[in-house]
Amino acid sequence: MTDNELSAADVARYIDFTLLKPEATHADVAALIAEAIELGTYAVCVSPSMLPVEVPLEADLKVAVVCGFPSGKHSSTVKAVEAAEAVKHGADEIDMVIDVGAAREGDFAYIENDIATVRAAAPNPVVLKVIIESAALTDEQIVAVCTAAVRAGADFVKTSTGFHPSGGATEHAVRLMRDTVGSAVGVKASGGVRTIEQARAMIAAGATRLGVSGARALLAGAATTGESGY
């Protein structure tokens, strides 16, 4: 099966079903979890103030929590405390935001230390994803940030918060990130992935996870191509 032939159920297993709106309530998050289980997504991704959440023991669903979100302009110490608290309250995965300004200044040593500090606060088996805000960086900066993330022990590099005015994921950025980190580190495409066609394209470019806020609509789009449902 090629990436363009992935079924809705296959694509669902790539998805972190995301709810990060400032106005989100605990009831909204409970509804998100119920819908994620129904759709068969890999994980939900929520804000740290929403923890702890209730996930049925029998559900095959991970809980991801953002850290230093959305600006990344928190001190490394604050990010570490935030990550450790999230893990304490049930997070399986941490999606941390780098200081994008440091990347634009070329201070990749700072970025590596920032990531390593969070990694120490949320050690394996917690999955650490590093949000690099790829649309705000040059190709050279993307490569340098991804290299720093690998050195610092990250499990994934992730394109975007979805909140930056520069934009979200692109196939070019995903492909560049995959080429940089190799096969041992994941790549998460996030920001603007709204259709099944876009999802498949990101997977074909090298994404191993997708950040999606409209999972039901995206997966339902497979039905318009004459495929079986999920």
UniProtKB/TrEMBL annotation:
Endpoints of the signal sequence: none
EC id: 4.1.2.4
Catalytic activity: 2-deoxy-D-ribose 5-phosphate = D-glyceraldehyde 3-phosphate + acetaldehyde
Domain of life: Bacteria
Keyword Acetylation: no
Function comment: Catalyzes a reversible aldol reaction between acetaldehyde and D-glyceraldehyde 3-phosphate to generate 2-deoxy-D-ribose 5-phosphate.
Protein name according to UniProt: Deoxyribose-phosphate aldolase
Organism: Gryllotalpicola reticulitermitis
Organism lineage string: Bacteria, Bacillati, Actinomycetota, Actinomycetes, Micrococcales
Gene that encodes the chain: deoC
